[in-house]
Write a structure and sequence with these properties.
237 residues, 10 helices, 0% strand, globular, transmembrane, Integral_membrane_YjbE, TerC family protein, Integral_membrane_TerC
């Protein structure tokens, strides 16, 4: 019976959400890995990439396991949902041209490069962890196996195909928009299912989906029409 839960649509929808979230929010990981390993001898670069990526995966699974437990605390999911909405809005804002990776230092030692990758991933993973934990909640009892599976699928895509993914995003900006709205959808679900608010809200999937849709729409409106236009305004003058 437990195995059949892995075949349910909810499980695979959550897998798809995790992969999309990790590609959208984790695209910088490939850049960080490249910068951290660029000082290694050619023969060690591949090992640096493999070990650094493996360490980052293990660390992120641990963080998400803690996040899944913390989301059971009353009102924490509501606060997390608000933060996730802002992350989604930032995803839709015009990007600055500044080089935000200039402070990533390379190392000529294998384990030094691996340590740099893992620490940088830890600093950059807050948004990923929160979004993935929210997406995994819709999968029922097998949340952590879902997270591990989703990360194992998505991280190689980021590392091996980051340039392809970035080009697709440049060519089809709707991917970014849909990704931001997905974060808003997950935020709405998180806020509606908060243990502290649950006694005061109707226990109906229709209301949950309506709140999720409202979160997706809020991210779109704020990102594209409110903060987006405000950020573009000074550039036009």
């Amino acid at each position: 019976m437990d195995f059949l839960e892995f075949l349910t649509p909810a499980f695979w929808v959550a897998v798809g959400q995790i992969i999309l979230i990790d590609i959208l929010l984790g695209g910088d990981n490939a850049v960080v890995i490249a910068l951290a390993c660029r000082g290694l001898p050619p023969k060690q670069r591949k090992l640096g990439i493999i070990y650094g990526t493996a360490g980052a995966i293990v660390l992120r699974v641990i963080l998400i396991a803690f996040a899944l437990a913390l989301l059971a605390i009353p009102y924490l999911k509501f606060v997390g949902g608000l933060l996730l909405i802002w992350i989604g809005v930032k995803l839709l804002l015009p990007q600055d041209d500044g080089d935000e990776h200039g402070n990533i230092q390379s190392s000529d030692k294998l384990w030094g490069a691996v340590k740099t990758v893992i620490i940088a991933d830890l600093v950059m993973s807050v948004d990923n962890v929160l979004a993935i934990a929210g997406a995994a909640e819709s999968a029922g009892q097998h949340q952590l196996p879902l997270v591990i599976f989703g990360l194992l699928v998505s991280i190689p895509i980021i590392v091996a195909g980051s340039q392809i993914v970035l080009k697709l995003m440049d060519r089809f900006p709707v991917i970014i928009v849909l990704g931001g709205m997905l974060l808003g959808w997950i935020a709405g679900q998180m806020m509606y299912t908060d243990p502290g608010l649950k006694p005061y809200l109707p226990d109906a999937k229709t209301w949950e989906y309506a709140t999720a849709a409202a979160g997706a729409l809020l991210v779109l409106v704020l990102g594209k029409f409110v903060f987006g236009r405000a950020k573009e305004a000074p550039e036009a003058t």
